[in-house]
Design a protein that fits this description.
Blueprint (H helix, E strand, L loop, with lengths): L1 H11 L4 H8 L3 H9 L6 H11 L3 H5 L7 H51 L11 H34 L5
Helix pairs in contact: 2-3, 6-7
Length: 169
């Protein structure tokens, strides 16, 4: 058990037998013998070994050590990869929605412009002595006046937005 734990902790820390031997102040062959179970470290070396591996002595002596912390890191990296893929899909979906929103705004502006051109300001011939008709004509005129001034800027902005959010091949 001790031999397996020493080897597992050493590998999880990314140390070679030589590097661990230098830290514990023994030769590499001693580390190899400990890991093969051919010998065991004395108490002083066991303490030095636990300090070098930054692991409690109890873990080295008997508590089961996970095969490798690399497995935990691998599992964590796989989870992070899944999260990154989900975020990338969301970003792509948001970009597509924004693209189609810009296209819809462009189409809406063109349709409203066509309707206003076809209707040709009918309120000009209305009798404004009727209060309800006067309010309706004023609202219609205000809408037309604002639309004629704002629509070109909105159309250009929506077209630029649609171009910037288009899917690149």
């Amino acid at each position: 058990m001790l031999s397996e734990n020493i080897k597992a902790v050493r590998k999880s820390k990314g140390l070679s037998q030589q590097e661990l031997a230098v830290k514990v102040n023994v030769v590499r062959q001693t580390i190899s013998k400990w890991e093969q179970g051919l010998s065991v470290p004395d108490s002083d070396l066991l303490i030095a070994l636990s300090e070098a591996l930054e692991t409690p002595v109890s873990t080295l002596l008997g508590e089961a050590v996970m095969a490798s912390e690399a497995d935990a890191v691998k599992a964590l990296s796989e989870k992070l990869e899944i999260i990154n893929l989900q975020l990338a899909r969301r970003k792509t979906m948001r970009k597509a929605i924004l693209h189609w929103l810009f296209i819809t705004v462009c189409a809406g502006i063109v349709i409203v412009s066509a309707v206003l051109i076809a209707v040709t300001s009918p309120y000009l011939g209305w009798d404004f002595s009727d209060p309800e008709l006067a309010v309706a004509g004023t609202v219609y005129h205000a809408f037309e006046w604002l639309f004629v001034r704002l629509a070109p800027m909105l159309l250009i902005a929506a077209m630029v937005g649609a171009c910037l959010t288009r899917k690149k091949a």
